[in-house]
Amino acid sequence: MSTQAAPKPPLLRVTDLGVAYGRVRAVQSVSLEVGAGEFVAVIGSNGAGKSSIMKAISGVLAPVAGRIDFNGADVTGLPSHRLVRAGLAMVPEGRQVFAEQTVEDNLRLGAFVFAATPARIDEAVERGFTLFPRLAERRAQAAGSLSGGEQQMLAIARGLASSPKLLVIDELSLGLAPRVLEMLFPVLESLNRDGLAILLVEQLATQALAVSHRAYVMETGKVTLSGRSGDLARDPAVRQAYLGRA
Amino acid sequence: MTLRSLFSPGLLSSLAVAGALCLVPLLVANTFQLRVVMLFLIYALVALGLNLLVGLVSLVSLGQAGLYALGAYTVAILATKTGAGFFPAMLGAMAVTAVAGVALAYPTVRVRGVYLAVVTIAFGLIVQNVAIDWRALTGGTLGISNVPRINLGAGPLNTRDLYWLIAAVTFAGFVVHHNLMHSRVGRAMRAVAQSETAARALGIDPIRQRVLAFVLSSVFAGIAGGLYAYLNRYVNPDTFSFSDSIRFLLMVILGGAGTTFGPLIGAGVLTWIPNLLQAFGKWQLFAYGALLALVIFFLPKGIAGSVRDLWMRLRRGRTQVTREAGSWPRPSEAIDTILKVEARVRGPVLQTRGLTIRFGGLSAVSGVTLDIERATVHAIIGPNGAGKTTMLNALSGFYAPTEGSVTLLQDEVGGRSSDRIARSGLTRTFQNTELFADMTVEENVLIGFHARSTAGFLSTLFRLPGFHREARRQRERAALLLDYVGLSAYRDETAGNLAFGHQRRLEIARALAMSPEILLLDEPAAGLTHNEIDELIALIRDLKRLGLTVVLVEHHVDMIMAVSDHVTVLDYGEVIASGPPSAVRDDPKVIEAYFGASLTASGESA
């Protein structure tokens, strides 16, 4: 190994990102990083700009300023389908499964971009069923008929079907019962242990800080705090504002 | 937009149109040119009517030529066979086309989009074929000639007088069209086009709005057809073909659907451009097609729509602004008077007895009996898929009970439509929020007032004094409600651009605009932070203080415990526990089915 090797660049690096809807600026100038295999959370109140950042990172919305690098390449403004091919998959807010297609077809669609051969698509689908056996029981059912928790499992499994390096999840907990969350968070942790980098946007700050390595706290379009999740969970200001206890 | 900017541009544009119409006879040299202007005015009238359909309720008609033909033939037949004068003949044309409009609106109960387009095409073809084959009445392919000149009492009108008459009618059509677009009726129509579900929850009957739009657009076409019969003094089936229907639709799209001036611009372009393109000789039709394709490609919102967008962008400049929501709720005496509920009946406000909802063989809700007391917070909880949202849908009339009953304010409402239930005092929000995403924040709240508005339809069309008074009062109240939920800063922003949690607040403000007695909230805390949930709890308590009854479906355990008076737990569609929160929380069955072990021991509810 070379002795003067530069430190490896992070998997995802967002630099001075700005996002706007028309003339309303939702994100001011945000920089954040996710290293390979890292689990990073973004927390903050509504309107802080968390989802807007996720939309920009996943190519749904073109940023008005700044730069996004993924896996060593500038991907600013690339459309979502190209990003998925590059290894960045998204689990969107509100799940957005293809409601009228079957569970299995949803997974096949997730694998489609990545794996051109039928064998690899089958393999990706089976991986999803192994991860969430509940989905295997319902493989021929229309995705829209699943309960909220099962739809979230499907959305995650569909995102994973493209074998991404980074999974971006917007609001994992939205509308899910406590029991389902109790099951989903450990799944994310184990995926992360197996090497998947995860960027999670979450309103339930307690859980988000418990599962992630590092976290960013956002307020009105800016990052106001960042650091190791354990430290943030002990920070009095964070506890007061986001954890519901002083 | 302020009140002034809402009305003065309307006045200015009306004056501009009236001025232009007065100038025409001075500028036009000969009778032939004047006739072309009159044809343009008649086309414009059809396009204005069609714009009400396309621009407001987002329905596409490719049968407008059929309605235009009905108007023309009705006038021609009444005038030649019965000797009817101008007014009776025109009233006849309006009546016939109004009936046809109702008939055409009927399929929209079931079909939209492409299917509806096919239905309207069929209608146009039927009218044209009846005109060809019912020779005794219509004269067949030869048509009806010798339609008498209009005589308003002082002898037959000459061409110049006829111009003034047609100009006056089209001008009136323009004013009615403008007034409707910028009124609560127009707003309700746009709301129906964007989210039928939300419109119903706010007491707006979508079928009624669509029928109204269809009838108005048909009558506009009928009047235009009648004027055409008088102008041409001869009608035959060739004038009312399918390609004419396409041309009318093109006028609307090219000019800019949903804009005030679009139909006039579109009709003007399509009346004169073919003449101007004669220089292209045999390439004329090709040039015409190419021009249309280019305009639609580069100006997808039509000419008027694109100009409007450009103007807005220039006016706002490039400066970017940030918006911040205020804290909520912000109670005030003014809000209290809007929302305060007077108890009109005693006993539970909402009851179910043996309520069962079955989809195919699957029971989503089975045998649920509930009593919800006035001015309480009643939570319905349970695992995902337990039937909670189905319950809310049944209570709010989106599903009819398969078995059992729903009683609202001592009134049996099982099977009643959701918009009627909303008007009876029960409204709701939705799990994934159902806003009118393309409208502004303020407009969303204003639609909440629609069902409680008193200014009538005629008052709206002709802007009688009561209309302005009510519009002003509703805007004041909307400002109060937006302040109540802390969204005043976002008043003029597009609702769809709000953060998810702010969309929830807006949805609540919009529901409160209806002054409901009972409010159903479907997972209002989803997507909110701890601080915001505390604020939501304060809001629910404030609503309870004002006498509202709140039914809450929620997963956030802390919140349920903090705010509810009564908790009902569903599992697999059945009630497994019901009682005060503390009792339900310790129920082993509920812990097993719902809370799970660790979350009750620590986590969220610690």
Give a concise summary.
The complex is a heterodimer of chains A (246) and B (606). Chain A is α/β, with parallel strands linked by helices and 246 residues long.
Assign the CATH class of the largest domain in chain A.
Answer: Alpha Beta
- Structural class by helix and strand composition of chain A: alpha/beta
What name is given to the CATH topology of the largest domain in chain A?
A: Rossmann fold
Count structural domains of chain B.
2
Mind telling me the C-alpha Rg of chain B?
29 Å
Helical coverage of chain B, percent range: 55-70%
How many helices of chain B? The count is 26
Broad structural category of chain B: alpha/beta
Distance between the termini of chain B: 48 Å
How many beta strands in the DSSP annotation of chain B? 12
Strand content of chain A: 25-35%
Could you list the spans of chain A in which at least 5 consecutive residues all have pLDDT below 50?
none
CATH architecture of the largest domain in chain B: 3-Layer(aba) Sandwich
User: Biggest β-sheet of chain A, characterized?
Assistant: 6 strands, mixed
CATH architecture designation of the largest domain in chain A: 3-Layer(aba) Sandwich
**What is the radius of gyration of chain A computed over CA atoms, rounded to a whole number of angstroms?**
18 Å
Structure explained in plain terms:
- The complex is a heterodimer of chains A (246) and B (606).
- With 246 residues, chain A is an alpha/beta fold.
- Chain A has helices at residues 50-57, 80-86, 103-112, 118-131, 133-137, 148-160, 178-193, 205-211, 229-234, 236-242, and strands spanning 12-21, 24-34, 39-44, 65-70, 73-74, 88-91, 166-170, 197-201, 214-219, 222-228.
- In chain A, the strands form 2 sheets. In chain A, strands 6-7-8-3-9-10 form a 6-stranded mixed beta sheet, sandwiched between helices. In chain A, strands 2-1-4-5 form a 4-stranded antiparallel beta sheet, covered by helices on one side.
- Chain B has 26 helices and 12 strands.
- A 6-stranded mixed beta sheet of chain B has the order 8-9-10-5-11-12, sandwiched between helices. Chain B has a 4-stranded antiparallel beta sheet with strand order 4-3-6-7, covered by helices on one side. Chain B has a two-stranded antiparallel sheet with strand order 1-2.
- In chain B, helix 11 packs parallel to helix 14 (302-316).
- Residues 1-7 and 598-606 of chain B have low confidence and may be disordered.
- The interface between A and B is large, with 46 and 43 residues.
